[in-house]
Amino acid sequence: MPEGHSVHRIARQFARNIVGRTVAASSPQGRFVEGAEVIDGREALEVQAVAKQMFLRFDRDVWLRVHLGMYGAWDFSGDVSVDATIASSNGRMGQTNQRGTVIDDAILDAAGENSLSSIGAPRRARVRMSEQTTGLDEQTEWPPPVVGAVRLRLLTESTCADLRGPTACALQTPDEIAAVIAKLGPDPLVDDVAEGEERFTATVKKKPTAIGLLLMDQAVVSGIGNVYRAELLFRARQNPHTPGRDVPEDVVRGIWRDWARLLPIGVETGQMMTMDDLDPAAYRRAMAHRDDRHWVYHRAGLPCRVCGTTVLMEEAAGRKLYWCPSCQA
Fold first, then answer.
1. Angle, helices 4-17/249-269, rounded to nearest 10 degrees
2. Which domains are present in the chain?
3. Fewer Cβ neighbours under 10 Å: the N or C end of the chain?
4. Please, are residues 147 and 29 in contact by the beta-carbon 8 Å criterion?
């Protein structure tokens, strides 16, 4: 499932290519026909990402809420304007299998979390932004043909956005959107960071639930998924099984501040980069390969980078939890 940085990056893509334009909306798959009819012919006015959800507002206060879930994807095609802060030369955003290559000094991660480079000026292209990866291809036919089960197509004069396989795709009123956001924990890129720290700390300190589970609870804190959960806890040297209320307050605050630091890095680079102070060669390796950019995530059975103890992996509420039993004792 894409983590918070990916959703913020996708929202930036909408801001550059869809917001401020009138869209023709359709549901080729047929599962969002009525909703598409409401959106059709309206101007997209703003986009907002909170936690792992994206909200797109159209004129007359019509809101579209999208949660990609595990398998959702947005495909952009046409004249796609993408800069270095929101996409890579291979065009894909999200997280998946990690295969990296370096081309012309651009660090490309075929897992798609990339990017230090820009695809340059608007060009006729197709860009997938999701959990899965297909890369960036030249696109000549316009409008582009419908490929696969497209829940929603948003089409401007020059750009097409196709949505496939989301967990949620719904039209909601402003009050309903506000209610959804109110149930989410603080997001460092949306909420006041200091206020967010107080909310997060107060919530964690009253919970008997293990801190490793609390960090995955979007009602406690927004945007953290499996990767960031493992890495934040390791960086804090915090045992994931400690009840939230028993975690020292300074550690809880440190986790929030670390999240507020790592999330913007993820948005700007496209990588869930969690290792600090790397030399240039190590940094390039880390940007190209996931295995070189994390402390414990996906390192089950390997020695801890700090102490050499074997990194453990266990199931926690149906998700894989990676941690070092020595550093995080």
1. 40
2. 4-180 (3.20.190.10), 186-323 (1.10.8.50)
3. C
4. no
CA distance 326 to 323: 9
Task: Considering only residues 229 and 79, tell me which one the structure prediction assigns the higher pLDDT.
Answer: 229
- Both structure tokens of 208: 């008997």
Q: In what order do the strands lie in the sheet with 150-155?
A: 24-26, 150-155, 159-164, 73-80, 123-130, 136-138
Nearest to 202 by CA among 222, 227, 185: 185
Is 328 strand, coil or helix? Answer: coil
pTM of the predicted model as reported, rounded to 2 decimal places: 0.79
- The single-letter code of the amino acid at 230 is A
- Which residue has 């959990």 as its token pair? 131
Q: Which DSSP string corresponds to 24-75? A: EEE-TTSSSHHHHHHHTTPBEEEEEEETTEEEEEETTTEEEEEE-TTT-EEE
Name the DSSP class of 292.
G
Q: What would the DSSP string read from start to end of 145-212?
A: PP-S-EEEEEE-SSEEEEEES-SEEEEE-HHHHHHHHHTSPP-TTTS-HHHHHHHHHHHHHT--SBHH
Residues 49-73 pLDDT 10s? 998 899 999 999 999 999 988 788 8
The tokens for 323 are 């941690």
88 by DSSP, 3-state: which? coil
Paired tokens of 10: 């996708």
The angle, 0 to 180 degrees and rounded to 10, between the axes of the packed helices 193-205 and 249-269 is: 130
Higher-confidence residue of 87 and 279: namely 279
Question: Are the C-beta atoms of 311 and 305 separated by less than 8 Å?
Answer: no
When pLDDT is cut at 50, 70 and 90, the band that residue 241 belongs to is very high
Extract the tokens encoding 284: 């390039």
Cα 99 from Cα 96, distance rounded (Å): 9
Q: How far apart are CA 8 and CA 175, in angstroms?
A: 22
